[in-house]
Here is the input.
Amino acid sequence: MSNMTIESGDFRKVLGKYPTGVTLVSSQDDHGPFAMVIGSFGSVSLDPPLVQFMPAKESGTWSRIKKTGKYCVNVLGEHQLELSNSFFDKEKDPFEAIQWSESTLGSPIIEGCVAWIDCSIGDVHEAGDHYIVIGEVQGIGATEKDDGPLLFLGGAYGSFNKDIGGN
Here is the structure.
């Protein structure tokens, strides 16, 4: 590793130039459904199908997910900003105000999300103040609607403008 000192504010500012998708990583235990908002999600492998997300080491929600051995990644749509924000409110249970169904593994699939990936926990690697959690994909699904994903860029939420070209 480099001996160069990088200030956390500078690091956040520079990395804030790169957009991330907004996901809700959900699970369920004896106390009911629960979830955490995650921007650090991505695919790892097609064969076998693997994905990853990176929870903070001190996250109590991650501790609960780890104990279940399973989770579902809900890719939030551009229309779900309010839903995403509801998971930061520690006074209310957001699951009381939203519609969801159980995945094959028993994790919540949030109604209206643009895609979902049902996983069992594979490898977990330490990485600084976070973990890299490898999910072994057990099921997938996507909406038939043409909704775009909810994105986060430079400290603000937005959506993808499909009119600028591409495939």
Notes: Residues 151 and 164 are 16 Å apart (CA to CA).
